[in-house]
Amino acid sequence: MPLTADAVAAQQVQERLKLLYGIIQDIENKRSLCEQSINTLQRFSNDDKGLNSQKTKSLIKNAMAQTDAEREAIENALQKIHEIRNIKNERRIKARTSTSNKEAIRRGTWIKMLLSSAQTLPLFVGKVGEKAPPLCGAIPAERNYVAKVGDTVVALAKLVDKEDWIVAEVVSYNPGTTKYEVEDILKEQNQKDRHTLGKGRVIPLPLMRANPETNPEALFPQGKVVLALFPQTSCFYKAIVYKQPTTHTDEYEVLFEDSTYPEGYSPPCNVAQRYMVPYKQRMKGSTSAASTSQGGGSDSDSEDTYSKS
Amino acid sequence: MNGSKRSSYSTKIGKFNGKLKDILSSSRQRAEIKEPKVADIKNFSNVPIIKQFDNTRLLPKYTSILSRTGDEAVVMDDLDQLQQDLEKLLCTNAVRTRFFLGEYNQTDQKDSQQDKKAHDKTSLKRKRPDEKPKFKDVKNGLRVVKKDPSRFYNENAYQEIPKIALPRNDNSDKFWASIEPYCAAVSNDDVAFLDTLIQEFSKDIDLRIPDLGEHYATAWSDELLSDEQNIGKSPTKKTTNSDFKKNGLHAIVESIIRNAENDIKINKLETPDISKFKHNEHTDHKNGICLEKRLLKQFIGQGIFVQDHSNKDIPEDEILSEIKKCQQELLTVNRYNLEELNKLRSVVRNDIHCNQLKDDLDKIDKEILDLYSIMVEKKALHRKANALLRQQHVLNREINNMTDMSMLY
User: Which residues from chain B sit within 8 angstroms of residue A205, using beta carbons?
Assistant: First the structure.
């Protein structure tokens, strides 16, 4: 049974890859059309000097139509890529729940996966006048939003002797008790890998990146207090936004709250849009204490990572 | 670990289903509230676009996939890089859409403004055709024909607009041209002109009032006498007769005086007096008779009037004093003018100095502008350098990722 399911998934992926190739050819065609219309517009505006506004308008309209066609093709291609990723991800979740002899993924690998996941997170490029939806960049989820199974979340979990915001995956959600069951992504390090937590202790991570050029409203403003993933760890700590990203590949620069530094903050660290969530006020006491203790220990953590990988 | 389970792009479809028409119409409404974000760039030389000849440089994975053929054109390992390339394209695309939208709205606004100004009535007509003509069409079929000429007229209107705009500009130019000489900078010529004026005004004017001549009545009678003498010698009686005719009033006065004398002195002085009188009459004629003087003399002589010396000079003085008064006034005005001219000259001198300063300032301004443009150019270079560095950084990271991923397997 799992074999056939895998085969079906593989077939689906292959289909989409083939489609993707066709779409890319299409994109190239659309791009050449677009370039042509822009060239015409440029030539006309150089000759005409803006005298014939009707013609200019029609040329702009034409260029816009071509641009729009190009956008549709590109979005189509990206859609296919995300479909492929989703199929893969679903297979992974199924495999995890169905089989008990799951392969333990090492810590270093997890960190790498977190990084690549941050880069491959779908990018939201709003159309004109379109606002970023919830869970895009800094836009929080709706009140009654429930994270899906397999989604990555930040969970306030009780580790050995303290509470920490950790990166976890949703295993299940019980609507009756409104509690999540989440799994710590670093199972082998912490004895207890599954936590049952109330809704208030789980924050879903953004499902899309925001494009700073078109949707700056979906970015955390400078000076905003956030929870951010500390580099080379799987824990989130309180931080202040120091610099916003300027392009869609950029990362935030944040200052982590850390009492080991004389100013009380760490030097600027890069954190991807995916691993930034709004800070929750009521958890203040536990997180700031945790950040203090963990901030100092991060160096040894990273060393550990390198030795393992 | 790709946490997003659902296809995120399907949730992305917002108000506008990607239809250009929707975007255009909605943005036109919004343009009134919010200015388009993109800067005003009239020439379309820097439209944000990744050109196709930049493919290999900016979109490496995308380009390599394009050149592949066969079934296994795209493989799983390509996806991450391909996604980045496509996202780059998508971002440029989004920026470009906004750029065009800004341009379009600008052209549109300009158009509608011109339209409103030049042809208010026609624009009203154009707004309504959706409602009114329909209404009319139902009523009266003939009106349908009228639609077309009006549209034709509207099309013409577009071409006429610049023609109307031009003379208006001309007028303002004319106005400024007429103003210009009055606003021109002061020059040394102006100072010279002022100097000559001051010189002229400061000259003493030698205004001599000529001595009082003979009274006009005396002058007239003199003229009369000479006229008579010229005509020829005539008897005295005839002369008196002619006196009566020619100078009625004068003769009447004469005769009155004569009669009065006769009445009073008729007894005492008979012959000699008459001869004397006759002689007097003659001399009177000779010397010219001033009516007033003579009357006065007679009246005084007969004791009707008391001689008053002071009275005699008054009529002469009145005019003289008037003249002198006027002269005085003119002198004060002249003095005032002179003062003003001197003030003006000093002001003009200051102004010339100011002009020199202004020239200097202009020179320095120009230098600053030149410097600024140089700086802007350098800044652009700097920005370009930054962009290149950023690209280098991105490429570097990609390479690192590739090696990282390869290390995983």
Answer: 3
Averaged confidence pLDDT in chain A: 80
In this structure, the answer to whether residues A165 and A293 fall within a common structural domain is: yes
Angstrom distance (rounded) from CA B58 to CA B87: 12
ipTM score of complex: 0.79
Put simply, whether A208 touches B (Cβ < 8 Å) is yes
A205 shares a domain with A269: yes
Among the ranges given (A88-92, B136-140, B236-240), the one the predictor scored with the smallest mean pLDDT: B136-140
CATH of the domain at A253: 2.30.30.140
Domain residues for the domain of A277 are 152-308
In a domain, A127, yes or no: no
| A175 and A56 both lie in a single domain | no
Looking at chain B, which residue has its C-alpha nearest residue A59? B104
- B367 Cβ under 8 Å from any chain A Cβ: no
Reduced DSSP (H G I as helix, E B as strand, rest coil) percent helix, strand, coil of chain B, to 5: 80, 0, 20
Provide the token pair at B395: 């490429």
Contact: A128, B95; criterion CB under 8 Å: no
Is B42 an interface residue toward A (CB < 8 Å)?
A: yes
Interval B161-185 mean pLDDT: 67
Q: CB–CB of B5 and A86 under 8 A?
A: yes
The C-alpha of A151 sits at a distance from chain B's nearest C-alpha, in angstroms, of 4
Is-contact A38 B44, C-beta < 8 A? yes
CA angle B8, B13, B15 (to 5 degrees): 150
Q: What residue in A sits closest to B49 (Cα-Cα)?
A: A35
Residue of A41, A65, A67 lying closest to B93 (CB–CB): A67
Tokens encoding B211: 């001595």
Q: Cβ distance A273 to A245 under 8 Å?
A: yes
In a domain, A161, yes or no: yes
Q: What is the mean pLDDT of residues B172-176?
A: 78
Q: Is the pLDDT of residue B268 over 60?
A: no
The count of domains in chain A is 2
- The pLDDT of residue A289: 38
Q: Closest Cα of chain A to B42: distance in Å?
A: 8
Do A91 and A158 share a domain, yes or no? no
In a domain, A176, yes or no: yes
Last residue in a domain, options A64, A79, A99: A99
Show the 3-state SS of chain A. CHHHHHHHHHHHHHHHHHHHHHHHHHHHHHHHHHHHHHHHHHHHHHHHCCCCHHHHHHHHHHHHHHHHHHHHHHHHHHHHHHHHHHHHHHHHHHHHHHCCCCCCCCHHHHHHHHHHHHHHCCEECCCCCCCCCCCECCCCCCCCCCCCCCCEEEEEEECCCCEEEEEEEEEEEECCCCEEEEEECCCCCCCCCEEEEEHHHEEECCCEEECCCCCHHHCCCCCCEEEEECCCCCEEEEEEEEECCCCCCCCEEEEEECCCCCCCECCCEEECHHHEEECCHHHHHHHHHHHHHHHHHHHHHHHHHHHHC
Residue B380 has pLDDT above 90, yes or no: yes
B 161-190 residues inside an 8 A Cβ radius of A: 162
- In-domain check, residue A126: no
Pairwise CB contact (< 8 Å): A122 & B4? yes
For chain A positions 2-21, those within 8 Å of chain B (CB to CB) are 13, 17-18, 20-21
